[in-house]
Amino acid sequence: MKVAKEWRLGSMGDTKILPGSRHRSPLKRPIWIILMVSFVSLFLVCAYIYPPNSDVACYVFSSRGCKVLTDWLPPPKRELTDEEIISRVVVRDILDTPPVESKNPKIAFMFLTPGSLPFEKLWDMFFRGNEGRFSVYIHASKEKPVHVSPYFLNWEIHSSPVTWGAFSMVDAERRLLAYALKDLDNQHFVLLSDSCIPLHNFDYVYNYLMHANMSFINCFVDPGPHGNGRYSTRMLPEVEEKDFRKGAQWFTMRRQHALLVMADSLYYSRFRDYCRPFADGKNCIADEHYLPTFFNLVDPGGIANWSVTHVDWSERKWHPKSYRAQDVTEIAFSLNLWNGHMKLEVIFNGNFGQYSFSC
């Protein structure tokens, strides 16, 4: 039989005998704590799967409502609609398809105009000597234009009336893309208006766009009343407010993206139905939101999020600033010979940097 050992502490004269190990009774498990943790866990799981929809149910959790619960819970994954599944399959296949090879790649210049083009002579100088490297398409919504340049003759497409701010603007853009896509050599597509002019010579614009593996579409978040303030919840579930974007109408687009626009019916229909002037008490301008939102959803990495077309909105009006004679230098419209070719440079009193066009 083992005897408990004596432990001596301190000096040799002071001794204290410590008892050996004693048998302890097992601890009682705190059953009520286990039950409480289980109940809270079950409660949170149920609240995540079946979130409360009424204000009364929300205030059971917190005086600040459901926001407290949703702030730290991950957003629940919703089931995609049939239209969304179809759209994603089409988008994936178009983006994965190798671009059409062309021995003579061209840029399609698409003019959206009410009638004649006041800067047609300037565009004539821009195109001269570059035959075979561009195409021209004209959507004249009000009257048949009168042309002064042979590059614009017989290039009017079937047109419909266009109202500023209305969805007919988006339809006109898609109509121009459809006609331009018929030519397999067209590899890049530029939307222009009757007030647009080139800022550089043709070679500069051609090389810049053709060597860029992206589309130049203006796309940004605008939390103000003229941005996300135009969003309608009737676009749900396909278009959420966090995905709603804004951008200037002007774009340059590579061929695969132009095909995506033609193939889209899901997001097109949502903007057609719920992004209109004075719809639901909001003044939604579709041509400023449809394409930026669409590409933010289907291929955000494929666009530059900025445009190569300069538009000055600093005057804070419904229309951008119009440039007058005093804004243009004396050498703006000079035409010089450079290595046997005509060189056109349009120079304004300002720094235009990356821009290729001005409207």
TrEMBL record:
Q: Which GO terms describe its cellular component?
A: membrane
Q: Which InterPro entries does the UniProt record give?
A: BC10-like (IPR044174), Glyco_trans_14 (IPR003406)
The membrane-topology field of this record reads: Single-pass type II membrane protein
The organism's place on the tree of life at top rank: Eukaryota
Q: Where in the cell is it found?
A: Membrane
Q: Which UniProt keywords apply?
A: Glycoprotein, Glycosyltransferase, Membrane, Transferase, Transmembrane, Transmembrane helix
Q: What is this protein's name? A: Glycosyltransferase BC10-like
KW Hydrolase (keyword) present: no
Which source organism? Gossypium hirsutum
Glycosyltransferase keyword on record? yes
GO molecular function, one example?
Answer: glycosyltransferase activity
**For this UniProt entry, which segments traverse the membrane?**
31-50
